[in-house]
Write a structure and sequence with these properties.
Length: 140
């Protein structure tokens, strides 16, 4: 056991002890001096990253705006086609109504012509009768 104590004693040798303490202290200082943060942590790389993010966001926004404009353009074209079809249908309906109204007016005109013709015939007949009766009256 004496040799074991010697070994223990040699490890706690007063000459070796300050050297070991110095080495331990150096290691602790080195650990403390070792940066826990990345080397560019305090640089403006965060600004660069945010500007990259901003430019990427701006590009995405611009692309979305272009896509939005394309969609609106397509929807406007569809809407215009529908509106044109509705306008054409309304115009056809108006034309049909005008044709019916014109046919009604022409039929009424024909009836009025017939009535006028009958009235003229009746008047002519009455005038002929009156002439005959006035001739008979003058002769008698």
């Amino acid at each position: 056991m004496g040799s074991a104590r010697k070994r223990l004693n040699t490890s706690s040798d007063p000459i070796q002890e300050p050297i070991q303490e110095k080495e331990l202290a150096k290691q602790e200082v080195a650990k403390q001096e070792e940066p826990a943060l990345p080397p560019d942590f305090f640089d403006n790389s965060s600004l660069n990253n945010s500007s990259t993010k901003d430019s990427t966001t701006m590009e995405i926004d611009e692309q979305e705006w272009i896509n939005f404009q394309k969609e609106i353009s397509k929807e406007t074209q569809v809407s215009n086609k529908i509106a044109n079809a509705d306008d054409e249908e309304l115009q056809r309906d108006r034309d049909e109504m005008q044709e019916r109204e014109q046919e009604f007016c022409l039929a009424r005109l024909e009836k009025l012509k017939e009535v006028a013709k009958r009235v003229k015939e009746i008047r002519d007949n009455n005038m002929k009768s009156e002439k005959k009766s006035t001739k008979n009256f003058v002769i008698n």
